[in-house]
Amino acid sequence: MNPPSDPLSVCRAIDAELTHVWMIRTFLKHADEAEEDEDLREVVRDLYDFILAVGPVTEETDTKAYMKMAKKKLRRLRGATELYEAIQPEVSGHTNFSMAAKSLRLAVDRIIALVQSPQ
User: Which UniProt keywords apply (predicted)?
Assistant: First the structure.
C-alpha cells in the first residue's frame, strides 16, 4: 500500500495508528501490574504524552503544527516502546502483555515511517 502523500492524509494515518496506541495504553494503565511497576507507569505516561501532544485530527488541523509536534515527541514515543519491549517479559509473560508489545511496535513503526516521510 502506498503511503499517503498529502499532509492531511499523513496526519490522519498517524491518528489512525494512535487508536491502537491508545488501546494499548489503556490496557497497560488498568493492568494490576501497573500499580507495582514504575517503568510500566512511565510507558503509560509517555504514550499518553504523545497522543495528547498531537491531538485528534480534524478538517481544521494545522498539519504543519501537527507534524512539528509529532517530530518533537517521536523520541519519547520510540523510547516508551523500547522500554515496554524490554520490561514486558518481567512485567508479565501473559499473552495479553506480549501481544500488546507486538501491537505497540507495529503501530509505532508505522507512525515513525509516516512522521519521517517526505511531505
Answer: Hydrolase
Write down the pTM of the prediction.
0.92
Model confidence at 25: pLDDT above 70: yes
Backbone φ, ψ for residue 15 (5° rounding): -60, -40
Give the gyration radius of the chain's Cα atoms: 14
Residue 105 predicted with pLDDT over 80: yes
CA–chain centroid gap for 37, Å, is 20
DSSP per-residue letters across 66-85: HHHHHHHHHHHHHHHHHHHH
Cell matching residue 84: 515496554
User: Residue 4 in contact with residue 13, Cβ under 8 Å?
Assistant: yes
Domain 7-116 grouped into CATH 2.40.30: no
Q: pLDDT-derived band of residue 2, with 50, 70 and 90 as boundaries?
A: low
**Domains of the chain, residue spans:** 7-116
